[in-house]
């Protein structure tokens, strides 16, 4: 597992602790669009704290210092158990089966119409009155262009951007290709409607930096339990009970997760599923000698088995495995350095029947890359459009509890 290019991990020093403290109390406007690396020495990114932080949340040194600050405050109460990911809530099945599928069924039962294979390309606006409004939705199918009129009483909710746009799948014997064009149209739609309308934000800040927002994940389907039991014996964690297993000496900075089994509804009893990812996808691997982004599923699994030091069992495991890489060009685009106004408000100023949701609208104090952010933005959008005297639940602010602050400082000092 040794890699001579990577120095040994160290603890946070006093300078790092002071910088973390300063970032926690400094107003966001003072940080501007600075990067995390603008505030720390290179040695900070070789500490145990940073290793756990970046692999848990997928931060890179060049990501937004403002978002880093929000995470510090949002998860202050979890600092003491950070190394074991205590406090993380997990669904029994994968998130689609546990959350999306039940929600979809509920919406179907309540008459919501889903129209597949239709891409929204533009909105038509009426900007002649005291308050602007959307008057039409422009769509296209494989065969024609459509314009859907929006009546005076209708409401329009737009999900801005997409972290998973452009994602491509490989196979056991083929790597995933890097796609720079978003075929979903999510980014193109935001760029189109934001042109000349600063209140709609600035999508290029997030969408036009693929080299800084891409990484690769992979799933492994196993028809033999050998790998699961070997990992259990090495880590002491039963599937679904432990957190990430990160390989700190991995040139890819790779991590894997063994979720509770079955991970999918209908998964056969003799099948196990795990997943993982790497944050340094352009670095050569330590065992296969190729960048992760250029590797087949077989090569990625071979690299992981090498770090697990189970080469003797590798051939047997590979024979009963199907490893699928997924390269995601926009997956951390929401972390790109930003300034005030780059993310629009859920209810844009001056608009009557329009609201934004998703990871690229602005919710003060909350953190992106979470299910909560999407849910909270949707709640705010619906309440505002319908004029309801309701509000999404407040964001937990443990930084105002002296006991939480003391525990967080004590934990960080020991990292």
TrEMBL record:
<dbReference type="Pfam" id="PF06100">
    <property type="entry name" value="MCRA"/>
</dbReference>
<keyword id="KW-0456">Lyase</keyword>
<dbReference type="InterPro" id="IPR010354">
    <property type="entry name" value="Oleate_hydratase"/>
</dbReference>
<dbReference type="GO" id="GO:0050151">
    <property type="term" value="F:oleate hydratase activity"/>
</dbReference>
<protein>
    <submittedName>
        <fullName>Oleate hydratase</fullName>
        <ecNumber>4.2.1.53</ecNumber>
    </submittedName>
</protein>
<dbReference type="InterPro" id="IPR036188">
    <property type="entry name" value="FAD/NAD-bd_sf"/>
</dbReference>
């Amino acid at each position: 597992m040794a890699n001579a290019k990577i120095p040994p991990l160290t603890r946070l020093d006093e300078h790092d602790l002071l910088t973390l403290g300063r970032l926690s109390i400094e107003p966001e406007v003072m940080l501007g669009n600075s990067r995390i690396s603008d505030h720390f020495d290179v040695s900070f990114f070789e500490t145990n704290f940073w290793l756990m932080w970046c692999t848990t949340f997928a931060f890179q040194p060049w990501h937004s210092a403002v978002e880093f600050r929000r995470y510090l405050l949002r998860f202050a109460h979890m600092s003491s158990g950070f190394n074991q990911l205590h406090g993380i809530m997990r669904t029994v099945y994968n998130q689609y089966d546990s959350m999306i599928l039940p929600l979809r069924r509920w919406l179907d039962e309540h008459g919501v119409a889903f129209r597949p294979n239709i891409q929204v390309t533009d909105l038509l606006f009426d900007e002649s009155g005291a308050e602007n409004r959307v008057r039409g939705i422009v769509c296209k199918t494989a065969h024609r262009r459509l314009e859907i009129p929006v009546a005076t009483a209708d409401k329009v909710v737009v999900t801005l951007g997409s972290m998973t746009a452009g994602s491509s799948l490989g196979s056991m014997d083929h790597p995933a290709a890097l796609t720079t064009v978003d075929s979903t149209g999510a980014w193109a739609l935001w760029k189109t409607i934001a042109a000349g309308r600063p209140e709609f934000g600035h999508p290029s800040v997030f969408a036009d930096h693929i080299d800084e927002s891409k990484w690769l994940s992979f799933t492994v389907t196993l028809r033999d339990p050998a790998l699961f039991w070997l990992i259990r014996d090495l880590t002491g964690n039963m599937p679904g009970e432990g957190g990430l297993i990160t390989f700190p000496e991995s040139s890819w900075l790779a991590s894997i997760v063994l979720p509770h089994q079955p991970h999918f509804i209908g998964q056969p009893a003799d099948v196990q599923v795990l997943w993982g990812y790497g944050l340094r996808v352009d670095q050569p691997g330590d065992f296969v000698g190729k960048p992760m982004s250029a590797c087949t599923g077989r090569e990625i699994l071979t690299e992981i088995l090498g770090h697990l030091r189970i080469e003797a069992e590798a051939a047997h495991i590979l024979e009963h495995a199907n490893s699928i890489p997924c390269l995601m060009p926009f997956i951390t685009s929401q972390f790109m350095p930003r300034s005030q106004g780059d993310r629009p408000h859920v209810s844009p100023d001056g608009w009557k029947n329009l609201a934004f949701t998703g990871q690229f609208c602005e919710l003060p104090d909350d953190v992106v890359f979470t299910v909560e952010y999407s849910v909270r933005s949707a709640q705010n959008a619906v309440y505002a459009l319908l004029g309801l005297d309701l509000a999404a639940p407040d964001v937990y602010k443990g930084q105002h509890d002296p006991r939480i602050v003391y525990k967080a400082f004590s934990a960080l000092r020991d990292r």
